[in-house]
Amino acid sequence: MEGMQNMDAEEIRAIFRFSALEKNMISSFEIQGDLFLPFLLSLKSGGSWSYATEEAKSMAVKDVITYYNEEGKTGYTLEKIYFFIDPEIIEEEGVIRRLEKCGTKEERELVERPYLITLKAKKIIFAEVNPEFRKIIVRELKKKRIQLKGTPAYSAAHELEHLEKGEIKGVPLWNFEYVKELAKNEHKNGQ
């Protein structure tokens, strides 16, 4: 209750209203409530998340697109959240080497992820979080398979590795080496 002492009554009412809307949204999809944890974490904390019980698995994968108006010098970043119930990999394509940080590990690690991943799931729920209009539009997709590429594919592969193996294994950053190189456009006389 310590944090609520600084809130005014209007802010507390807004939090309760949002929580009631959230509860109604979750119950409308007829999915066990705790399976929605990855979706809620992705929405509230950012990033991609996964969760498993003995009966089911769920995963939320986030993607972002920034829209910018050059003329007005304003824009917004639309967030897309793909939420899967019992996701499975159907196909992977390509190999991307990248650094990732996971959980409580201190350093990032070099891992290999597919550039393109095709998933199937019992349910696929898609959300768009639009800060321009302060709307969170959520709908269940009719299709039961989806193809992701780039960042959402890396995130999906990362979360699926958690669901299958628990901990992410990679090559620690301290296996890299520093190489000092002179700037390419340096003048010979030091100017």
Describe this structure in words.
This protein is an alpha+beta fold. 23% of the residues lie in helices and 37% in strands. The protein contains three helices and eleven strands; from the N terminus they run H-H-E-E-E-E-E-E-E-E-E-E-H-E. The strands form three sheets. A five-stranded antiparallel sheet has the order 1-2-3-8-9. The protein has a three-stranded antiparallel sheet with strand order 4-7-10, with helices on one face. A three-stranded antiparallel sheet has the order 5-6-11, with helices on one face.
What is the topological layout?
Blueprint: H1 9-28, H2 37-45, E1 49-52, E2 57-69, E3 74-85, E4 88-93, E5 96-100, E6 109-113, E7 116-120, E8 123-130, E9 135-140, E10 145-149, H3 151-165, E11 171-172
Antiparallel strand pairs: 1-2, 2-3, 3-8, 4-7, 5-6, 6-11, 7-10, 8-9
Give the N-to-C terminal Cα separation.
61 Å
Query: With helices defined by DSSP (H or I, 4 residues minimum), what is the helix count?
Result: 3
Which runs of at least 5 residues are low in confidence (pLDDT < 50)? Answer: none
Q: What is the string of helix and strand elements?
A: HHEEEEEEEEEEHE
Which percent range fits the helix content?
A: 10-25%
Shape: globular
Rg calc:
21 Å
What characterizes the major β-sheet? 5 strands, antiparallel
Beta-strand percent range: 35-45%
How are the strands ordered across the major sheet?
1-2-3-8-9
> Mean pLDDT, rounded to whole units?
91
The number of strands is 11
Structural class: alpha+beta
